[in-house]
Amino acid sequence: MRQLLTESLCLGLLSGGAGLLIGYVGMQLLANTLPATGVFVTSRLDGTVLLFALIISLATGFIFGVIPALSLSRAGVAEVLKEARTAGRSARRVTIANSLLVGQVALSFVLLVTAALFLRSIQRAYEIDPGFKAATLAVFITNPGQAGYGEPQIRGFYQNVRDRVARMPGVESVSWASNMPLFARPVTGLQVEGRPQRSSTDSATTIVNTVDLGYFETTGVVIEKGRPFTEIDRPSNRELLVVG
Predict the structure, then answer these.
(1) Using an 8 Å Cβ cutoff, are 192 and 205 in contact?
(2) Is residue 108 part of a domain?
(3) Does a structural domain hold residue 135?
Protein backbone atom coordinates (compact mmCIF):
# COMPACT_ATOMS: atom_id res chain seq x y z
CA MET A 1 0.00 0.00 0.00
CA ARG A 2 2.84 2.40 0.81
CA GLN A 3 4.40 1.80 -2.60
CA LEU A 4 1.13 2.45 -4.48
CA LEU A 5 0.36 5.57 -2.42
CA THR A 6 3.87 6.91 -2.94
CA GLU A 7 3.66 6.39 -6.71
CA SER A 8 0.19 7.94 -7.00
CA LEU A 9 1.13 10.96 -4.85
CA CYS A 10 4.27 11.56 -6.93
CA LEU A 11 2.25 11.35 -10.13
CA GLY A 12 -0.35 13.73 -8.68
CA LEU A 13 2.28 16.31 -7.68
CA LEU A 14 4.02 16.07 -11.06
CA SER A 15 0.69 16.45 -12.87
CA GLY A 16 -0.22 19.44 -10.70
CA GLY A 17 3.10 21.13 -11.47
CA ALA A 18 2.66 20.48 -15.19
CA GLY A 19 -0.88 21.88 -15.02
CA LEU A 20 0.35 25.06 -13.31
CA LEU A 21 3.03 25.49 -15.97
CA ILE A 22 0.54 25.01 -18.81
CA GLY A 23 -1.90 27.39 -17.09
CA TYR A 24 0.77 30.07 -16.71
CA VAL A 25 1.85 29.82 -20.35
CA GLY A 26 -1.75 29.83 -21.56
CA MET A 27 -2.54 32.85 -19.38
CA GLN A 28 0.35 34.79 -20.87
CA LEU A 29 -0.70 33.89 -24.42
CA LEU A 30 -4.28 34.90 -23.72
CA ALA A 31 -3.21 38.22 -22.17
CA ASN A 32 -1.13 39.05 -25.26
CA THR A 33 -4.03 38.39 -27.65
CA LEU A 34 -6.73 40.37 -25.80
CA PRO A 35 -7.34 43.94 -26.96
CA ALA A 36 -6.07 46.62 -24.61
CA THR A 37 -9.48 48.05 -23.75
CA GLY A 38 -9.10 47.81 -19.99
CA VAL A 39 -12.40 45.93 -19.48
CA PHE A 40 -10.90 42.47 -18.98
CA VAL A 41 -10.07 41.02 -15.60
CA THR A 42 -6.33 40.56 -15.06
CA SER A 43 -5.61 36.89 -14.36
CA ARG A 44 -2.72 35.85 -12.17
CA LEU A 45 -1.40 32.82 -10.32
CA ASP A 46 -1.45 33.81 -6.65
CA GLY A 47 -1.13 31.85 -3.43
CA THR A 48 -4.77 30.76 -3.52
CA VAL A 49 -4.32 29.13 -6.93
CA LEU A 50 -1.11 27.38 -5.81
CA LEU A 51 -2.76 26.11 -2.62
CA PHE A 52 -5.79 24.87 -4.55
CA ALA A 53 -3.58 23.06 -7.07
CA LEU A 54 -1.57 21.46 -4.25
CA ILE A 55 -4.67 20.25 -2.40
CA ILE A 56 -6.26 18.86 -5.59
CA SER A 57 -3.01 17.10 -6.58
CA LEU A 58 -2.60 15.48 -3.16
CA ALA A 59 -6.28 14.52 -2.95
CA THR A 60 -6.26 13.03 -6.45
CA GLY A 61 -3.09 11.05 -5.79
CA PHE A 62 -4.41 9.79 -2.45
CA ILE A 63 -7.88 8.80 -3.71
CA PHE A 64 -6.68 7.06 -6.86
CA GLY A 65 -3.87 5.39 -4.96
CA VAL A 66 -5.69 4.11 -1.90
CA ILE A 67 -8.54 2.44 -3.83
CA PRO A 68 -6.35 -0.05 -5.78
CA ALA A 69 -4.12 -0.44 -2.73
CA LEU A 70 -7.08 -1.53 -0.59
CA SER A 71 -8.32 -3.91 -3.29
CA LEU A 72 -4.90 -5.53 -3.54
CA SER A 73 -4.46 -5.77 0.23
CA ARG A 74 -7.69 -7.74 0.61
CA ALA A 75 -6.72 -10.35 -1.98
CA GLY A 76 -4.60 -13.26 -0.95
CA VAL A 77 -1.41 -14.33 -2.70
CA ALA A 78 -2.91 -17.64 -3.80
CA GLU A 79 -5.93 -15.94 -5.36
CA VAL A 80 -3.76 -13.44 -7.24
CA LEU A 81 -1.54 -16.23 -8.62
CA LYS A 82 -4.59 -18.28 -9.58
CA GLU A 83 -6.16 -15.35 -11.45
CA ALA A 84 -2.83 -14.70 -13.22
CA ARG A 85 -2.65 -18.32 -14.45
CA THR A 86 -6.24 -18.39 -15.67
CA ALA A 87 -6.32 -14.87 -17.16
CA GLY A 88 -5.13 -16.02 -20.58
CA ARG A 89 -7.67 -18.86 -20.84
CA SER A 90 -10.81 -17.12 -19.52
CA ALA A 91 -12.89 -14.51 -21.30
CA ARG A 92 -11.97 -10.96 -20.44
CA ARG A 93 -14.42 -9.48 -17.98
CA VAL A 94 -15.71 -5.93 -18.20
CA THR A 95 -14.73 -4.34 -14.89
CA ILE A 96 -15.26 -0.87 -13.49
CA ALA A 97 -11.62 -0.01 -14.22
CA ASN A 98 -12.02 -0.96 -17.89
CA SER A 99 -15.20 1.08 -18.14
CA LEU A 100 -13.51 4.11 -16.62
CA LEU A 101 -10.59 3.72 -19.00
CA VAL A 102 -12.89 3.58 -22.04
CA GLY A 103 -14.82 6.61 -20.79
CA GLN A 104 -11.61 8.55 -20.19
CA VAL A 105 -10.34 7.85 -23.71
CA ALA A 106 -13.70 8.79 -25.25
CA LEU A 107 -13.94 12.00 -23.22
CA SER A 108 -10.34 12.94 -24.08
CA PHE A 109 -11.09 12.44 -27.78
CA VAL A 110 -14.19 14.66 -27.51
CA LEU A 111 -12.18 17.37 -25.73
CA LEU A 112 -9.45 17.26 -28.37
CA VAL A 113 -11.96 17.60 -31.19
CA THR A 114 -13.73 20.46 -29.38
CA ALA A 115 -10.44 22.26 -28.78
CA ALA A 116 -9.45 21.88 -32.43
CA LEU A 117 -12.80 23.25 -33.60
CA PHE A 118 -12.52 26.13 -31.13
CA LEU A 119 -9.06 27.08 -32.39
CA ARG A 120 -10.30 26.84 -35.97
CA SER A 121 -13.21 29.14 -35.13
CA ILE A 122 -10.83 31.69 -33.62
CA GLN A 123 -8.62 31.52 -36.72
CA ARG A 124 -11.61 32.10 -39.00
CA ALA A 125 -12.81 34.96 -36.79
CA TYR A 126 -9.49 36.76 -37.33
CA GLU A 127 -9.94 36.35 -41.09
CA ILE A 128 -13.39 38.01 -41.14
CA ASP A 129 -13.47 41.59 -42.38
CA PRO A 130 -15.37 43.57 -39.69
CA GLY A 131 -15.79 46.60 -41.95
CA PHE A 132 -13.20 48.76 -40.17
CA LYS A 133 -9.40 48.67 -39.84
CA ALA A 134 -8.99 46.85 -36.56
CA ALA A 135 -5.26 46.20 -37.02
CA THR A 136 -4.24 49.86 -36.55
CA LEU A 137 -7.09 50.95 -34.28
CA ALA A 138 -6.51 51.67 -30.59
CA VAL A 139 -9.52 51.93 -28.29
CA PHE A 140 -9.60 53.66 -24.90
CA ILE A 141 -12.64 53.61 -22.63
CA THR A 142 -13.40 56.41 -20.15
CA ASN A 143 -16.42 57.77 -18.32
CA PRO A 144 -15.99 61.30 -16.92
CA GLY A 145 -19.50 61.19 -15.48
CA GLN A 146 -18.32 58.70 -12.84
CA ALA A 147 -15.84 61.34 -11.62
CA GLY A 148 -18.64 63.84 -11.04
CA TYR A 149 -18.21 65.83 -14.26
CA GLY A 150 -21.18 67.85 -15.48
CA GLU A 151 -22.30 68.27 -19.09
CA PRO A 152 -20.04 71.29 -19.89
CA GLN A 153 -17.06 69.66 -18.15
CA ILE A 154 -17.58 66.41 -20.06
CA ARG A 155 -17.56 68.23 -23.41
CA GLY A 156 -14.41 70.11 -22.46
CA PHE A 157 -12.77 66.91 -21.25
CA TYR A 158 -13.42 65.08 -24.51
CA GLN A 159 -12.23 68.02 -26.58
CA ASN A 160 -9.04 68.36 -24.52
CA VAL A 161 -8.28 64.63 -24.69
CA ARG A 162 -8.94 64.54 -28.41
CA ASP A 163 -6.60 67.48 -29.10
CA ARG A 164 -3.82 66.08 -26.89
CA VAL A 165 -4.02 62.58 -28.37
CA ALA A 166 -4.06 63.99 -31.92
CA ARG A 167 -0.71 65.71 -31.26
CA MET A 168 0.97 62.48 -30.19
CA PRO A 169 3.56 61.07 -32.64
CA GLY A 170 2.25 58.30 -34.87
CA VAL A 171 -1.42 59.18 -34.42
CA GLU A 172 -3.16 59.73 -37.76
CA SER A 173 -6.73 60.43 -36.66
CA VAL A 174 -8.70 60.70 -33.41
CA SER A 175 -12.40 60.50 -32.67
CA TRP A 176 -14.75 59.30 -29.96
CA ALA A 177 -17.99 57.36 -29.81
CA SER A 178 -20.52 56.32 -27.19
CA ASN A 179 -19.52 52.70 -27.72
CA MET A 180 -17.02 50.49 -29.50
CA PRO A 181 -17.60 49.32 -33.07
CA LEU A 182 -20.20 46.55 -33.34
CA PHE A 183 -21.31 47.26 -29.74
CA ALA A 184 -24.05 49.82 -29.19
CA ARG A 185 -27.55 50.42 -27.87
CA PRO A 186 -30.13 48.16 -29.59
CA VAL A 187 -33.24 49.78 -31.02
CA THR A 188 -36.29 47.74 -32.01
CA GLY A 189 -39.37 48.64 -33.97
CA LEU A 190 -37.58 50.60 -36.70
CA GLN A 191 -39.67 51.18 -39.83
CA VAL A 192 -38.36 52.24 -43.23
CA GLU A 193 -40.17 55.20 -44.79
CA GLY A 194 -41.96 54.25 -48.01
CA ARG A 195 -41.89 50.54 -47.24
CA PRO A 196 -45.31 49.05 -46.50
CA GLN A 197 -45.61 47.25 -43.17
CA ARG A 198 -46.98 43.78 -43.76
CA SER A 199 -47.70 43.01 -40.10
CA SER A 200 -47.39 44.53 -36.65
CA THR A 201 -44.10 42.68 -36.13
CA ASP A 202 -42.68 43.66 -39.50
CA SER A 203 -40.02 46.02 -38.20
CA ALA A 204 -36.23 46.12 -38.21
CA THR A 205 -33.85 45.94 -35.27
CA THR A 206 -30.68 48.00 -35.31
CA ILE A 207 -28.05 49.46 -33.00
CA VAL A 208 -27.39 53.15 -32.42
CA ASN A 209 -23.98 54.64 -31.69
CA THR A 210 -23.33 58.35 -31.10
CA VAL A 211 -20.05 59.37 -32.76
CA ASP A 212 -17.87 62.47 -33.10
CA LEU A 213 -16.38 64.12 -36.14
CA GLY A 214 -13.82 62.05 -37.99
CA TYR A 215 -15.18 58.78 -36.66
CA PHE A 216 -15.47 57.12 -40.06
CA GLU A 217 -12.01 58.31 -41.13
CA THR A 218 -10.50 57.05 -37.88
CA THR A 219 -12.10 53.62 -38.00
CA GLY A 220 -11.63 53.25 -41.75
CA VAL A 221 -15.35 52.81 -42.49
CA VAL A 222 -16.16 53.66 -46.12
CA ILE A 223 -19.34 55.66 -46.74
CA GLU A 224 -20.91 54.37 -49.94
CA LYS A 225 -23.42 57.19 -50.36
CA GLY A 226 -23.85 60.57 -48.71
CA ARG A 227 -21.37 62.39 -46.50
CA PRO A 228 -19.97 62.09 -42.96
CA PHE A 229 -20.66 64.53 -40.15
CA THR A 230 -19.01 67.96 -40.41
CA GLU A 231 -18.63 71.06 -38.26
CA ILE A 232 -21.72 72.66 -39.74
CA ASP A 233 -23.85 69.91 -38.23
CA ARG A 234 -23.03 70.83 -34.63
CA PRO A 235 -25.34 73.84 -34.08
CA SER A 236 -28.17 72.24 -36.02
CA ASN A 237 -31.15 70.93 -34.12
CA ARG A 238 -31.81 68.26 -36.70
CA GLU A 239 -31.06 64.67 -35.79
CA LEU A 240 -28.56 63.55 -38.42
CA LEU A 241 -27.54 59.94 -38.82
CA VAL A 242 -25.57 57.65 -41.08
CA VAL A 243 -27.19 54.33 -41.92
CA GLY A 244 -24.88 51.34 -42.11
Answers:
(1) no
(2) yes
(3) no
